[in-house]
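Following the same procedure, backbone shapes were mapped to integers, as reproduced here:
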Amino acid sequence: MPLPRSADPCRLPATALHSVVAMFALSMLVACSPADESGEAATRIAAGDVDNGPVLLVSMDGLNEDILRRTLSPSQAPAFHQVLDQGRCAEYVVPSFPSLTAASHAAIWNGAWGTVTGLTGNALHRLPRSAHSLLELRSGFSYAPLAAEPIWITAARHGLRVGGHHPTQAPFPAGFPPTHDDWTPTEAEARRTEQRRILDQANIMVFNGYNQRPVNEGVLRLADMTATDATAWEGVDALPAAGPPPRAFTWDTPLGDLHALLHGDGDTYRRLSIATRPALAEAVVVEVHPAEVEATGDRELARFFSAPLRLRSTGGEPVAMRFRLFELADDGSDFLLYHPAVHVAEANRPEVQQAYETGAPGWFGNSSMGLWARGAFGPRFDEGGDGTAELRMLETAELVTEVFNAGSRWLWATLEPELMIDYFPLPDTVDHYLLGFLDQRWPGYDDDLAARIGELRARLWALADLRLALLRDLVAAADGRLVLIGDHGMRATWQFLHLNVALRDAGLLVLDADGDIDLARSRAVSPNGYWITINTTDWREGIVPPQERRAVIDEVAAALQAIVDSAGEPVVTRVYVAEEHPELGLGGAAGGDVYWRLAPGYRTTSSLRAGEAITPARIWAGHGFDSTEPDMHTVFCEWGSGVTPGRTPAMRVIDIAPRLGSWLGFGSPQDATGEP
């Protein structure tokens, strides 16, 4: 259904059973942990002391309760509605400010805002300031800029069995960069060493596949490959003589050349065999099938994908790639072959990484909605397509649901965790691309298009619902507790506010002869589109002395408040100065000085390419806005053993880890400032 005008277990194919050797090695891994080299035994919380069994926390990226209830019925998202209706849920949860994935998750795991953790955004300033300009950024998803202790470290220190299934800022020790004036290298190394020791314990398994993606997703045609000699393939003589003559190809990837052999039945080509060398016995086989049209129901998800092809990353880590053959001409003259991205599922110990890749091979990080949006699966239905492109994209979402579920099942069964932290990106991805079409405030809103988009969105959210249902069932079977959370909400936008263009127009930012920012003459810059930083002299190349900082902030605020739309209405409806709002967690060493609230329909950028501060944008739903606004709020719901349904007061994401620690008896993470 459109948003009102007033509105601001599934299973993988059984290809991944553990070998006897792998199971024995893993059992020895869990049973034979190295002793604590410090000689100090961690405080052990016995399993019987954990209230109401194990706790499984899952973050559904982009989850906002109000949006879900208004756009998805109980029949379309039954598991979500069940947990929200039958659980004990906060009225709402305030995310980080800006409401971004990396910053909010860091606040969740560590129980503190970015002013403490150093994780202020998806892209944040490099530290120390004296060694870097304010234009130098690094990823907030990495563990390297983290300066705090995540909950999995705290719980493992106290002896709980802890699993982390692709949380941000994992799976290695935090980097502890210099985020405060009294920081010392000795202090940082001591904390890294302690975290490294805990991560070496056998009672903790943490995975994160988002740090390395050696191969991007892709769609290949025959023209993208190089023909080779089919007779060079080992085993080619064993193919049926009645089939069409085999044809061989190679294509290069960042992990080396892959080999493909096209073959079939009778006069028709039907399949590709794909391997790391031309050997049929080592190949995975992918048969051509048109796009899946059958509803999910009880069928196996992503059933037309190949088995995983085992590979090694450039660093030697185990990885895998799957394939889907959507088209193949009968005469072999062309085909359309899709593969998802290849990720390295890093783990806190090498043997754990190997065991995961054996038990849940081929994990990757997201569906291929980006390829769909760019037309790689064919014309979209808003471009006159017949729906085939959407069906193909849906299969990629099915596969990402499958691999996440496989990993969750494996970790739950292997470790039997007392605390498991899990994640799923699909809701965020889906709503980035689709939610905006449902907003009647968008000038391009169309009832018919909204109805078709709504149906597609519901099918994609049904996969997230299946994911939640699987985790719910794991918890129910163990008489445990499920905790459903999110990291931020979503908002439709269709206009750009180019911050650096506005700062240039106000004389606060100056460009050089090449059109780049000239820091020697610029007093304020937005490095990432989510805040504005004053170019003070504590930054390398900074020019604003401390005594002039406040005056420049006032100029920035005035420049933002002067921006109006075509009707003369303000685009920036509120300005926040970081140090004036410690309750919101603004600023910090790796954060900015000035933040804001926007009028509906606008999103900010740091781009300098636009000639004007305000320009039209394609319809998109996003986040990163003022965390106090309802559409940015997210959820906290506990469901399961011993949980009395009802509503509890609003809370902040920094309260989540302390609350879990209180339930499980190990207290708050070391750097937490949130409340249980």
In short: The radius of gyration is 26 Å. Confidence is low (pLDDT under 50) at residues 1-50.
